[in-house]
Amino acid sequence: MSAVAQVIDVSAAAETEQELTDGFHLVIDALKLNDIDTIYGVPGIPITDLGRMAQAEGIRVVSFRHEQNAGNAAAIAGFLTKKPGVCLTVSAPGFLNGLTALANATTNCFPMILISGSSEREIVDLQQGDYEEMDQLAIAKPLCKAAFRVLHAADIGIGVARAIRAAVSGRPGGVYLDLPAKLFSQVMDADAGAKSLVKVIDAAPAQLPSPSAVTRALDVLKSAKKPLIILGKGAAYAQADAEIRSFIETSGIPFLPMSMAKGLLPDNHPLSAGAARSTVLKDSDVVVLVGARLNWLLSHGKGKTWGDAPKKFIQIDIEPKEMDSNVEIAAPLVGDIGSVIEALNEGIKTGWKAPAAEWIDAINARKEVNIGKMAQRLLKNSTPMDFHSALGALKQVIKERPDAILVNEGANTLDLARGVIDMYQPRKRLDVGTWGVMGIGMGFAIGAAVETGKPVLAVEGDSAFGFSGMEVETICRYNLPVCVVIFNNNGIYRGTDTDPTGRDPGTTVFVADSRYDKMMEAFGGVGVHVTTPDELKRAVDEAMDSGKPTLINAVIDPAAGSESGNIGSLNPQSVVKKK
Known about the structure:
six-stranded parallel sheet; 41% helix
């Protein structure tokens, strides 16, 4: 062959190569087309190169030490942005690690997509023993909102589009997308590949309530003498902040925020009933649920928590099946929260009378008493600290830095912080949510820092921190503005249990006086050890000012905690004494 012919042949080959694409690039292109700009995950077979290529194509790829924490970061990214957070894992064990976060996201209605590599169908179906063989799609289906598998490169665009739409439409939730290893290396014509991609249009369309439902709800509300509005995290997710505020302030109805709805209106707002929770739940006669469910967090809408006063419930939810789940809903309002609240705002423009002064005065009187009692406990300057004195210092931090994001988990650490630390802006408090699971801390903190760029204060019980603590290396590696405060009382609930046989430590006891701050120092971050509220406040201020990864080991009295925090009643107690 002549030199000229060789050049032509090489050129033709190069041109042919440029016209091809493969599964790796199609997945990346499909995500980018739909404005997915961040992936959380753990690299490994068969998805290592997918992460590398995504990073090279401009997608931010945040690599974790454990898939569950990566999944939690993706889930909270979905909550904060209203577009699905993406978690990328390896097959089988990595998939299972991520599945916990996916199930939790689904339960909490956070839009998230778990993408996992998997073994080949022909081997899995015959159970022939492939590397990390597992029928991942079958396992995922019961635990998420939807699950899809893509077998052909030409279907990647459709698969990604279906996953995105399923995650954010209606009631948001988790979606599993199964990508077998051989899919990534499949080759197809580049033009055909580009045409196969799908840009999702109007993934979460407005769902308007029926006019008759709005009229019914307004009639029930106008009959109330002691109305109450309960804001759930669904209200925070909706980002209908102005509409919700207008509804509350125009109607004059007091509101009670669930923990992740705190800050939709400031906790120090005149109509906030957070400091009189028991009173308003017990004495109210008409309750408007806005993106809140009558689950265990609200005692299922019945029992002594709700008192003897007859109750009528108005419930706003995009999921019709949620109505009447525990008690009769007198006025169901099915639709997206923004549209429903907008309709209610229109309806109260005429013929509306604000709640009686006696109801508001009774709430304010109870608030004043409870706030006064709490203030005394928060100002206690004991050494070692108890939970209240430590939280008193952090309460002031958030008051001075309302734009910071608070992540919170633990037993006593979580339960008490809910009531102590006031929030002033929406979607600034992130915690364990509906399931009450521990281990979300570092994943949520990383996801919040990456998605918002805001400083994050993660307040952790020493037990809760143990579930995700290794991710402090991730925080340092990406140089994120995260300050972790560990309430260290040497154990779970309390650090004072003993083994009656004298053989081992008590089952709830950790190594006494552990120095968690040294962990952060080991990875190049800042570690601080504090023993008083003043030291704690000063250390957190310095960390938040610097933006440097920081871990503060806050010494708490080992005897300060209570069994299971405020939900000790859920912990069965033996009534049998062994002889």
